[in-house]
Amino acid sequence: MRRRAALAATVLSTLGWAAAARTAQAAAPYAGPLFDAHLHYNEEAFAPYPIADAFARMQRSGVQAIVANSRPNDGTKQLADAAAKAAAAGITVVPFVRLYRNRDDYTGWFKDESIHTMVLNELERGTAAGPYRGLGEFHLYDSANANAPIARKLMQLARQRDLVVLAHVDDAAIDLLMAHAPETRLIWAHTGIGGASVARVKELLQRYPSLYGELSYRPGLTGADGLLSPEWAALFAEYPLRFMIGSDTWINARWSDYEALMAQYRHWLGALPAAGAQRIAWANAAGLFGVAMPR
Ligand SMILES: [Zn+2]
Questions:
Q1: Tell me, what DSSP letter sits at residue 129?
Q2: pTM of the entire structure?
Q3: Which residues have CB atoms below 5 A from the ion given as ligand 1?
C-alpha cells in the first residue's frame, strides 16, 4: 500500500495529468493494449454477432483481455471455449458468473436463494478458460436491496473465494455492499451511472482501497471534444491505479458500435501522460486478475 501511495504521488507531481487532458488536443490516440473490463455476450447477440465476429471486433480494436459475463452464463462459456481453442487469438478471457438466467432476475436476484445456488454450481463447474474470477455484473436499482440476503451472501462469498465483484449500483449501495465483506475487490460499473459527484467518488475510493471504477456511460467524464473533463483528469491523477475502461455491450447496438467505443477511449487516453494512460487502458485491470502484458 505504501508503494502504491508513493507511486500515485510521483505520477501526480511529475506528469501533470490535469494539464495534459486539456492541452494535448493534437495528441495521437493511445496505441497500446486495451483491457475491456465490462463486456457482456448476452443471448440476443449470438445470432447477429457470432463468436468469431465478436472476437474480430475486439481484435480490430486492440482489445487484448476482457472481463466476460452474460445472460445466461452460456455466452461467457462460448467466449471461454473460443479462448481455450485459440479462436480468440491474443485475447485473454476473464470469466465472471452472472446472476441472471433471464431478464426477470435483474430485479429479484438479491432475495432469490436459487440464484445463490446457481452461482455456487457455476463456480464449481468453471469454464474452458479456467475458473471464474468474479461475480456480476449485477444491478441494484434501489440501494436498500444491497442489504437483502443474497446480496450479503454473495459479497461474503466473493471475499472468501477472492472473487472480484462487478456491480452496477449507486454510491449508497457501495457503502452497504462493502460493509458485508470489507476489502472485497469491487469494480463499480460506470463509477456511478447516476452521476455521483466526483467528490463523492473520491471519498469512496479513499474509504475502500479495494474499490475500482469502470468508466463506460459515466456522466461528465468527457467534454464535447471527447477529452477528459478537468475534474476527472484530476481524480485520475490522484488515483491512477483505480480506474479501468469497459464496453458494456448490454445491447446489440453496443456491439455494432464496439470499435467506435474503443476509439473514443483511445482519443482521451491519448491526451494523458503515457504511463497513466496505459494503467487505465490496461494495467489496472490486468493487475487485478494477474493477466500478463501482451507481447
Ligand atoms: Zn453492463
A1: T
A2: 0.92
A3: 137, 248, 250
